[in-house]
Amino acid sequence: MTKDDAMLDMPDPGALYAALTARDAAYEGRAYVGVTTTGIFCRLTCPARKPRPENCRWFTSPAEAAAEGFRPCLRCHPTGPEAEGHQTVASLIAALKANPDRRWSEADLVAMGHDPSTIRRAFKRHFGQTFLDIARNMRLRQGVKGMTAGQSVIDSQLDAGFESASGFREAFGRLFGHPPQQMRGAADLRADWIDTPLGGMIAIADAHTLHLLEFIDRKALPQGLRRLSGFVGGRIGLGRTSVTDRTETQLAEFFDGNRPRFDLDLQLRGTDFQRRVWQGLRAIPAGETRSYAELARDIGSPTSIRAVANSNANNRIAIVIPCHRVIGADGTLTGYAGGLWRKQRLIEIERSYVA
């Protein structure tokens, strides 16, 4: 969709101004307001004092507002993840981080004055999963850490706050593609959990190379794990190697703004064409983006735009192979398996490298 097409899909200025005064969250990620008297642009949910209608200009993206000379608001952070502009979502995420072991329920949300269905929709829109799903994954992390340290399955289950053994096995199997007991034996590859500012990731490595790095809530993660398991005859176990440690260290450096390029040996399992695409992604400097057509030209296959997009989607080593640096030809963010909110945040982080 072009910028002109996007503007045609926008409501008229009167409706947008009404949404601005009502701080209507339905327009998150769809519309932004630039205030001509201040030179600042905001989300429509911004808590700042509202401008007069004649001082408003309307945009479909932060990039469009910035191109017209407007600066991002320091209160609603319109260039950051959309969830940061949603006060209820931000407060619940903060509560999760403060107490990751808590067993949350819809009754807890009601006691805090929230409507569970509203919270469910808000989290699905921003993160692709519900608040309770995220809370369950944070508890599952404790179980994975316990098993990696040598705890029994039952002790790890209880530490993770799962009263039901079957519930723990089911959640573990959804994440890893195998039941917990199956990952306790001898193995050629080791899988462990890595925490990042954008959520948990599963890293799978041997003594020399990184085979997989995915966000835990990616829907295709279990499928990818089963496929990788097939390559090694099912010999994937819990634990970590020196490669896992280096991956964790370099991810922390990346998020701190100190590592524009990763120095890790990767096992790229794919066709020759897919590997060319993935190497092309690694050649894009941090802070820059490419369209699918530009990436196709970069790797010498200018007519293979659809194949490039499919290869991008099949990347199983997130961030290190930076598929988030590919955007639409019109500058809009396009699909990202880890969630558009993460893609938006990763691109924003990498702008610091250019600066």
Counted up, domains total: 3
Number of strands: 10
Helix/strand order: HHEEEHEHHHHHHEEEHEHHEHHEH
Under CATH at level 1, the class of the largest domain stands as Mainly Alpha
Q: Strands across the major sheet, in which order? A: 3-1-2-4
How big is the Rg? Answer: 22 Å
CATH architecture of the largest domain: Orthogonal Bundle
What is the H level of CATH, i.e. the homologous superfamily of the largest domain?
Winged helix-like DNA-binding domain superfamily/Winged helix DNA-binding domain
Distance between the termini: 30 Å
- Low-pLDDT windows of residues: 1-8
Structure class? alpha/beta
Name the overall outline: globular
Strand content: 5-15%
Keywords: Activator, DNA damage, DNA repair, Methyltransferase, Plasmid, Transferase
Protein name: Trifunctional transcriptional activator/DNA repair protein Ada/methylated-DNA--[protein]-cysteine S-methyltransferase
Domain HTH araC/xylS-type: 112-186
Catalytic activity: a 6-O-methyl-2'-deoxyguanosine in DNA + L-cysteinyl-[protein] = S-methyl-L-cysteinyl-[protein] + a 2'-deoxyguanosine in DNA; a 4-O-methyl-thymidine in DNA + L-cysteinyl-[protein] = a thymidine in DNA + S-methyl-L-cysteinyl-[protein]
Description:
- It is a single chain.
- The chain is built from 15 helices and 10 strands.
- With 355 residues, the protein is an alpha/beta fold.
- The chain has 3 domains: 3-78, DNA Methylphosphotriester Repair Domain (3-Layer(aba) Sandwich), CATH 3.40.10; 80-175, Arc Repressor Mutant, subunit A (Orthogonal Bundle); 185-355, Orthogonal Bundle (Arc Repressor Mutant, subunit A), CATH 1.10.10.10.
- A hairpin with a 6-residue loop joins strand 5 and strand 6.
- It is globular, with a radius of gyration of 22 Å.
- The two termini are 30 Å apart.
- The model is unreliable at 1-8 (pLDDT under 50).
- Pfam families: Ada_Zn_binding, DNA_binding_1, HTH_18.
- This is Trifunctional transcriptional activator/DNA repair protein Ada/methylated-DNA--[protein]-cysteine S-methyltransferase.
- It catalyses: a 6-O-methyl-2'-deoxyguanosine in DNA + L-cysteinyl-[protein] = S-methyl-L-cysteinyl-[protein] + a 2'-deoxyguanosine in DNA; a 4-O-methyl-thymidine in DNA + L-cysteinyl-[protein] = a thymidine in DNA + S-methyl-L-cysteinyl-[protein].
- Keywords: Activator, DNA damage, DNA repair, Methyltransferase, Plasmid, Transferase.
